[in-house]
Amino acid sequence: MASSHGSSPVPRPGVGGRDGIYHKERDPSPPRCRRPVRSLPDVCPKEPTGEGRGLCDGPSVVAEHDRWTVYSSKVNLPAALNDPRLAKRESDFFTKTWGLDFAETEVMPSFYLPNITREHFGPYLQETAQREKIHERCKTICPNKDDVDAVSSITTNHDKSRAELEQVPKIFLKPDFALEDPATFNAVLPWSHFNSAGGKSSRDVASSKLLQEKLSHYLDVVEVSIARQISLRSEAFFHAMSSQHELQDQLQETQRAVAVLRGRTADMDRIMCQGPLRALRTALARNNCVKLHNKLKLMAAVHQTQPTVQLLLSTSEFVGALELIATTKEVLQQELQGIHSFRHLGSQLCELEKLIDKMMVEDFSMYARSDLSRCLRDEPQVLEKERLESLVFGLLRQRKLDFLDIYSDEMIMAAKAIVAQAVAESVLHIEEIDTEVVTKLADQMRLMTFPQWFEVLKNVFESFLLFLQRIKATLSVIGNVVLEVLDSNQKNRLLEEAGSGASGQESSQGSSLLQGEAELAYLTHEGLFISDALNEAQQQQQAAAQDQSSAVGSRVQQGRAEAAGCDSASESFVGRDQNFISSENMMPTELEMNRVINNSQELLYTASDVSHDRCVKVLTARAKDGSLERLNSAEFVCLSQAVEAFVRDTEELCGRRSVSLRGALQSQANRFVHRFHEERKTKLSLLLDNERWKQAEVPAEFQDLVNSIADGRITLPERKTPGPEDRKPTEFLLVNGQKYAVVGTVLLLIRMFLEYCHCVNDIPSIATDMLTRLSDLLKHFNSRSCQLVLGAGALQVVGLKTITTKNLALASRCLQLVVHYIPIIRAHFETKLQPKQFSVLRHFDHITKDYNDHIAEISAKLVAIMDSLFEKVLSKYEVKAPMPSACFRNVCKQMAKMHEAIYELLPEEQTQMLFLRINASFKMHLKRQLARLGVVNDGGPQHGLVVVDVAFYTENVQALRSLERLDLNMAEIWEQKR
Q1: Which of 147, 225, 395, 883 has its CA 20 to 30 A from that of 131?
Q2: Largest Cα–Cα distance in the chain?
Q3: CB 665 within 8 A of CB 643
Q4: What are phi and psi for residue 740, nearest 5 degrees?
């Protein structure tokens, strides 16, 4: 039997379509309302090779009824089923035409047939069980007689035929018996009996006859054995022959029934199948055309990639161009792989991407140069914000993370240009400077006056503040872009992690649900055509295929849309953000993004440091010839305040404490302090060398200065222009209700240390240095005044004739005034020092001790003066009339002069203490003289004379002002009576 593994429909002209399949005739009447049916998968899917065969190529029982011929056979059916090369030949045989799913597809059980189990046969088995047992027992006990006879007869005949067959030589019974074999032929017909030389003899004839009879006998034995076998099966043979006619009649009836069935099936095929099949073929053809159209559109879009990229680059849309290139490369790898016309496009896109990288770096460099070199005033802080964002997005996307280094280099160059521009603009308005002769900026700045140079410095400070504000705004935009990209990447990663688990479940559930619904629609379809149930599933498959094929194409065309709508900044920004989401795998890692943010902050710190360094160069250029050291205190204070304000503003703006400008200012401040101190020390030395140590009048401005100190204002008051109503100078300086008789040098000294305090107020950084210098100044005043007054240096320096007690008292009072202000100065400096710097305050303790020691030495000097006078006068004292004696009168006179000299200068308490010491010295010398004269307390005449003199002395001393209550206690001058 020969058959084909897959029958092809035979065309029938004039009956169906071009494929020879019967088509359903359309009903001209309006269609009936049918309920919507569910679609089913194609019953004849495409072959595993991927190239689908039309529905017309499938097997058709109807079309091959009377047109099949032997030429339609392709392979012998037993050979196909017994092919030893295939392990699963049955499945291969059937699935080669109908697809891989033909044999494995599970057929759903019918909903109309119940599930039959063993329990349904339980009652029947119970009823027949007893009868079956009896039947089996009877068969064992009583076998059938006919069967026993037939078996015995068959056995006897078999043995007989077996013995006869054994007479036949075995060669005739071999399976490979063949007479054409010479050996076999010679064994059957021995030619030795027929090849005698004498020709045919009677013996040869006899041998031939004998051989013929032997072979005839063998033939008869075989025929008899065959006849015996036929006789044994004759009953079945004749029964088969008798039923042959009945079988032919049944075959004729079956043939007629099959013909009727085939006719009805052909009508069903023509009416019900050909139309739906044609619709399915049309739908498949349409799907293929749609896929082809989408592929062609995708190819057209890819073909327009390079012109679109050029258009985007012309509008600086680097992100859109890069995204378009990436999408096109992805399309070439996934959707258009193997297309010959695009074989070189991938390498061209790679080269174009490298070119865009260079363009972005160059464009960013140009942007930074133009942004930092434009005018700092009356312009927006950020230049072309959208362009900057686009450049940063593109550079981040291409992992060009060193773009901040480019900005840093441009920033340094712009900082240099700011200083040069400020100096050049100022020099244009100064006629004294010839720019053709003096070309260097440092030389030009040194030729300026301090107000002109200070104005340049303030302009530089203001320009650098605007410069830093612009840099901070630009870096803020860059940081926002980086943060937005980082945030979007993190969100996308979270969404992918959340959706990766659910996508597989949804796809599997969706496919199984779709398949289940299709099978359910196929089984429960009640419409006229089963093919209607496939529509919905096919439409869903078509929509999914179209979406998948057009998704990449839409992404390619998105770049073209961005090129067409690149005028809108906000839309372009959103598009770039979406592009970054789609190309997340190309973005830098989170660590790299955080490093970019840190670098942007460090770049702001660097900008602050660069600005301070350029300002330091302006300071050092001016200070090269020592011009800053020659500034007066007011000018240097203005300079210090301007520098401190600039440093404070930059620290608030950048959040970074820069030390270079403060260090340069500190260096200049140290030089200024040194010169400031040397000037005042020299001035103080000149004042002391010209001081005649006479009481000076106190101008009103100095009294106001002292009053302001008493009110807690340790600063220099503003100078007042002289007017007609100015107060007259006073004789004493009033400090907290006490009168201080001072010399002019001390008044200027007070103003000097207030200048020190004022400098500390304006320049807190020089507090320790200024404190050291002030302590040196106070020490210098103390030591120099000691040399001039106590050491009598004023006699040679100033030309005084002698150092009087008034000079000494005045010097003591001046020292007391300075001692009064030392704690105030200490408290003021303490507020300007850090706690770790409080150790330098010990200088004031040493100075206070030195001043008090000096005051004590002056007091001792005054006592020593009177002591020498007492010794000189009392050495000539004689106890004799008249009384009071001339010696005591001279002593009282000198005491009155001393009192008159110091009473107005020294306070009352100090005067009393001083005269107590003088009185003690007087008693000591008087006691010594009386002892020498031998006058004792015996009530004699000499004793009486001495008592009169002592009473005179006591009366005169107590008559002096502020000494009325002074207890002189003169009784101690007498020695005890012997």
Answers
A1: 147
A2: 233
A3: yes
A4: -125, 120
Do 361 and 398 contact (CB within 8 A), yes or no? no
In one-letter notation, the amino acid at residue 138 is C
**How far lies 120's CA from each of 112, 117, 128, 401, in Å?**
17, 6, 14, 81
At residue 614, φ and ψ (nearest 5 deg) are: -65, -40
Q: Stretch 826-838: mean pLDDT, rounded?
A: 88
Degrees to nearest 5, angle at CA 523 with 522 and 528: 65
Instruction: Give dist(CA 452, CA 444) in Å, integer.
Output: 11
Q: How far apart are CA 367 and CA 387, in angstroms?
A: 9
Q: What tokens does 618 get?
A: 């302006």
**pLDDT surpasses 50 at 99:** yes
pTM of this prediction? Answer: 0.54
pLDDT of residue 858: 92
Q: Confirm if 563 and 315 have CB atoms less than 8 A apart.
A: yes
Share of the chain above pLDDT 90, in %: 11
d(CA 430, CA 681): 37
Tokens of 213: 């009879």
Residue among 411, 414, 396 at smallest CA distance from 357? 396
Q: What is the pLDDT of residues 646-704, one digit of tens each?
A: 888 888 888 878 778 888 887 887 888 888 888 889 999 999 999 999 999 999 888 88
pLDDT of the residue at 71? 66
- List alpha helices for 142-195, DSSP H: 145-165, 182-188
Q: Helices 145-165 and 202-232 sit at what angle, rounded to 10 degrees?
A: 160
Please report which helix (H) or strand (E) contains residue 2, including its range.
strand 2-3
Kindly state the tokens that stand for 712: 């807690």
Question: Which two tokens mark 60?
Answer: 């058709």
